[in-house]
Amino acid sequence: MSKIAIIGAGDVGTTIAYTIQLRGLVTEIVLVDINRELVQGQVMDLNHGLFFVRPVHIYAGTYADCTDADVIVITAGTRQKPGESRLQLLARNAQLCKWVVDKIEPHNSKGLFLIVTNPVDIMTQVVIKHSGLPKHRVIGSGTVLDSARFRYFLSRNCRVDTRNIHAYVIGEHGDSEVILWSQVHISGTPLDIFCKQCAVACNATLNKNKIAEAVRHSAYHIIEAKGATNYGISLAVRRILEAIIRDEHSVLTVSTWLSGQYGLSDICLSVPCIINRTGVAQVIETPLAKSEEASLVNSAKLLRNARREMDN
Ligand code: NAD
């Protein structure tokens, strides 16, 4: 028996439920939303596909139904409008996350919290502080999606299967995110060495700039075109849920509370972490290039300033 609770049955929450349903990851999914009509409609629609997947009990519930969930996923909140940054959602969504935490009564819950609501790094920190839960039990989806986008663009550029590319984005899930070029390798071969052997004579430096732009601004381009992002993030969340539910000890760039790692404390941002049933089992301190180190410090500074402004 395993159960996932999803708070917020909008585009992201419902697509997460759908991807979990397709995978047959859990036996119970409860969706909670202040808009009762919407959540009931979403649940009816999901249930009508049950004939085609493994049995799973999907229902529209209340906050009381979250207590025995293995993971509570928070997606409730305002999303970006075209041209709006994630940090501009801060004050509204922080209040909402606190309200949701109070409703769930975390001290009575057995599960982990997985935060998706933006700006996700600060929301993760808000939930940790407000809930009083051990820090490893509250995880932000962080840059798992950005790392996947980075791999996708590299895959297209280098004409190699995405699954053979190892590449990470760390820091803020937002404009100041840090793209780790120094870490990129293609099945063990560092990118620079791969490029020397590659038959396609691409202009690597020019393409690096293009790739970085595409990764960093993906959400803006998608929101401009269709109003919201939901598929990529839902698969990223499913990947994190899988690592938790199946106790996989997988390395994922989730947003987590740092206490001294990378020289940073008292802040949540994304770095490679080992994820298992207990949540964040370990933060990995990967060696960074000097410029990447400086960008990570800048990302932390930016988040700290945004949080300070919110507190004042
Ligand atoms: P949406 O507007 O489609 O859905 C939000 C839902 O939250 C709505 O159905 C609304 O009724 C519900 N809601 C509002 N207040 C609530 C409350 N108090 N309790 C329960 N439900 C409540 O928005 P969306 O596109 O699903 O996006 C949701 C959030 O996810 C946004 O903050 C968005 O920025 C974020 N997001 C994060 C990532 C990421 O990578 N972390 C990616 C995409 C979207």
Notes on the protein architecture:
Strands 3-2-1-4-5-6 form a 6-stranded parallel beta sheet, sandwiched between helices. A 3-stranded antiparallel beta sheet has the order 7-10-11. A 3-stranded antiparallel beta sheet has the order 12-13-14. The model has no long low-confidence stretch (mean pLDDT 94). Helices cover 43% and strands 20% of the residues. It contains 9 helices and 14 strands. Strand 8 and strand 9 form a beta hairpin. It has 312 residues and is of the alpha/beta class. The structure holds nicotinamide-adenine-dinucleotide (NAD). The site of nicotinamide-adenine-dinucleotide (NAD) has 33 residues, from helix 1 and helix 3.
Concise structural overview:
The chain has 312 residues and is an alpha/beta fold.
